[in-house]
Amino acid sequence: MAATNTRWDIFCTVVDNYGDIGVTWRLARQLVAEHGVAVRLWVDDLRAFERLCPEIEPGLAQQRQQGVEVRHWPQEWVGADAADVVIAAFACQLPGPYMDAMAEREQPPLWMNLDYLSAEDWVVGCHGLPSVKYRSVQKFFFFPGFQPGTGGLLREQGLIERRQAFQQDPAAQRTFLQELGIDPAPGSQLISLFAYENAGLASWLDVLAADARPTHLLVPEGRILGDVARWLGADALTAGALQVRGSLTVQVIPFVRQDQYDRLLWCCDFNAVRGEDSFVRAQWAGRPMLWHIYQQEEDIHLDKLDAFLALYTKGLSSGAAEATGGLWRAWSAGLPIGQHWLAARKHWAELQRHAQSWSLEQALQADLATALVQFYRNWL
Q1: pLDDT of residue 371
Q2: Which keywords does the record carry (predicted)?
Q3: Could you list the active site residues?
Q4: Of the candidates 152, 295, 301, 319, which lies 20 to 30 Å from 277 by C-alpha distance?
């Protein structure tokens, strides 16, 4: 039996504004578009979802967007029949009545916990293993990842080819940027900045402002804006703001839908990203990048950072690997990164080549949606 014509439920609780809903919204659309399954996406915060999909009506309990049935996940569960495949995104707890509905099915559903992305070695050993059981229903671990033996990364069909064609078409890039009101000066390096609050930002902006080469910094609305405003000496920044300090032009842009954000990353020479969704999309952009990992208690996020760096910097020269590691670790610790940025710039051509090859290497693995569908087929 194929996955086609099956019903899938994806449950998402919005914890960090956009990361959780960003991943599940991409996954839901891809399952519908490429695998022919019916998807209900249950979301507890439609206001946050609206930023990614402006067509969303936050007051509706049920609506259809881009082929996906979007359901509001209320605090007081009103009941619903259980699907053939149930995905609890990022270990969210399913409603008790829904779990009962799963157990009451004649054929219990496949129940998976779609976990957070990690490059740690133990992920390969745990991926696909049984987890807890609720009555007759067994839950399984499903781990996205960068190595064979994991669930891979979200990647739509033809994504790499579309990205390459776009990056080889300067006219298409100019048109896209102009549509967002972005007009960088000739010869400027274009950098995107999407990050959590970070005390280390000022030192980076100081270096960019003093650089001989002009930089156009694009800052989508988000949590880092307060730090940018303090460095500029501004009270507050909103979309449309544009200020120049030395060689640095800072432009605040509106929060954009996911396909636009992808192309924005493709246009930029360097992308600073955060969390999980934008982190993966920056890798598909094939450009040098900087990851602001989500902070966790007891600094366990730094273990995850080191695990990814160990994979990502393989094949780099010792100097480039050291500069990359220094930059990323300082950034995620909130330390000044100006000197680390200058160290990385000394290896720029190598870092550009490496970002391209890393993207192509990761694209050799099955994508996350395909891996989920294959897991379901094997389970049957």
Answers
A1: 98
A2: Elongation factor, Glycosyltransferase, Protein biosynthesis, Transferase
A3: 20, 276
A4: 319
Supply 309's token pair.
């760096």
Q: Which domains does the chain have, with CATH numbers?
A: 7-151 (3.40.50), 159-362 (3.40.50.2000)
Helix ranges (H only) for the chain are: 19-35, 46-52, 96-103, 122-126, 159-167, 170-179, 201-210, 225-232, 258-267, 277-285, 300-312, 318-332, 338-345, 348-362, 368-379
pLDDT in tens, 188-238: 999 999 999 999 999 999 999 999 999 999 999 989 999 999 999 998 899
285-326 pLDDT, tens digit per residue, is: 999 999 999 877 777 788 999 999 999 999 999 999 999 999
CA–CA gap between residue 176 and residue 267 (Å, rounded): 9
- Pair 372, 127: CB distance under 8 Å: no
Look at 139-148, 246-255, 291-300 and tell me which has the smallest mean pLDDT: 291-300
Q: For the residues 354-358, what does the mean pLDDT come to?
A: 98
- Nearest-10 Cα torsion for 218, 326, 312, 259: -10
Query: Phi, psi at residue 305, to the nearest 5°?
Result: -60, -45
CA-CA-CA-CA torsion sign (92, 98, 103, 109): negative
User: Whose CA is closest to 7, among 90, 69, 66, 63?
Assistant: 69
Contact 368, 153 (CB under 8 A): yes
Interatomic CA distance for residues 97 and 78, integer angstroms: 9
Residue 85's SS3 state is strand
Q: Which helix (H) or strand (E) holds 245?
A: strand 242-245
**Higher pLDDT residue, 100 or 3?**
100
Rounded CA separation 1/378 (Å): 10
